[in-house]
Design goal:
Its EC number is 1.1.1.-. This protein is α/β, with parallel strands linked by helices. The chain folds into two domains: 135 residues, NAD(P)-binding Rossmann-like Domain (Rossmann fold); 183 residues, 3-Layer(aba) Sandwich (Rossmann fold), CATH 3.40.50.720. It has 13 helices and twelve strands. The structure holds 2-keto-D-gluconic acid. 2-keto-D-gluconic acid binds next to loops.
């Protein structure tokens, strides 16, 4: 009897031609429409799967794998993996993989775009114009804050943080400071034109602060009222990492009281729901978690996730190639992982 092919579950529609690469190795249970799977539904899908390809929408933890005796690999489409309980997966010898590197430059582009949009009030200006409020050119319309020659602060100096640092230093003549739990080797600091400072100094010195650090229980609400109070009232805050890093009510307080000039948020604690206080503010740029959303990069992410699943389940021409396993030290306040 021929050996039964492993079964894999693909939790969301990705690119059909890329997901088709799974067909030659596996029985594929794919998903044709964007679906909000409940934890119980995720558990049911995993129950008879050997592997799964999931996105940030699906949490996979101890409860979801409790009745999944065959599960051997979970390939996350994304570099952030706070949706996976890596310890629970490891305890069951289930390989967990993510998609670093392929999204670095695209996500750094987006971080910089958001920083500029907040500093120069771009989306606010567009809304104002579309609302028909531009009736006369005036000298002081929508005065913003400079980006060039200012101090860029980066919190979490992984690959994406380094990409933002290079953009700031080389493209905009910015002084770049960063904070990371551990200081980076000299060579990386030199390449990024960035200097390590402690968190307090970073908050006080940055004209534009960008969050690019991993989210975990240890970093939840790292940017709270006390942290925001240390920032310059002329500063901007950009978050392209995970919404839970910021206490959104404290941010709304600071923005509405003029204690912070502007913010740009691509991620939200309860996404896709957005704190209504943020929606009501004019000095915050809001985008729907699209940091890595260029066509080329999303295709590269899907391809890498497929390759990871094939490799982790030991199939196909790449059988035995190492997948991209999630790093061994999965948590930590400001460890570079992105
Ligand atoms: C992904 C992201 O689109 O990579 C990440 O961590 O946040 C995004 O780039 C998302 O994870 C899709 O699952």
């Amino acid at each position: 009897m021929p050996e039964a092919r492993p079964r894999v579950w693909v939790s969301q529609p990705l690119f059909g031609d890329i997901i088709a690469g799974l067909d030659e190795h596996f029985e594929v249970d794919d998903t044709r429409e964007v679906t909000a799977w409940s934890p119980a539904q995720v558990a049911r899908k995993l129950a008879d799967a050997d592997g799964a390809l999931v996105t940030l929408n699906e949490r996979v933890g101890a409860a979801e794998i409790a009745d999944a005796p065959r599960l051997r690999a979970v390939a996350n489409v994304g570099v952030g993996y706070d949706n996976l309980d890596v310890a629970a997966l490891r305890a069951r010898d289930i390989v967990a993989t993510n998609t670093p590197d392929v999204l670095t430059e695209t996500t750094a582009d987006m971080g910089f775009a958001l920083l500029m949009a907040a500093a120069r009030r771009i989306t606010e200006g567009e809304r104002w114009l579309r609302d028909g409020r531009w009736t006369q050119w005036s000298f002081d319309t929508l005065l913003g804050h400079d980006v060039h020659s200012t101090t860029l602060g980066i919190l979490g100096m992984g690959r994406i943080g380094q990409g933002i640092a290079r953009r700031g230093a080389l493209g905009f003549g910015m002084r770049v400071l960063y904070h990371n739990r551990s200081r980076l080797p000299d060579r990386i600091e030199r390449n990024s034109r960035a200097a390590w400072v402690d968190l307090d100094t970073l908050l006080r010195a940055a004209d534009h602060l960008v969050l690019v650090l991993p989210y975990s229980a240890a970093t939840r609400h790292l940017i709270d009222a006390a942290a925001l109070a240390k920032m310059k009232p002329t500063a901007t805050l950009t978050n392209i990492a995970r919404g839970g890093l910021v206490d959104e009510d404290a941010l709304a307080d600071a923005l509405s009281a003029g204690r912070l000039a502007a913010a740009a948020l691509d991620v939200f604690e309860g996404e896709p729901a957005v704190n209504p206080r943020l929606l009501a503010l004019r000095n915050v740029v809001l985008t729907p978690h699209v940091g890595s959303a260029s066509l080329a990069t999303r295709r590269a992410m899907a391809t890498l996730a497929v390759d990871n699943l094939v490799a982790a389940l030991g199939r196909g021409p790449r059988a035995g190639d190492p997948p991209t396993p999630i790093a061994a030290t999965a948590t930590g306040a400001t460890t570079a992982k992105r």
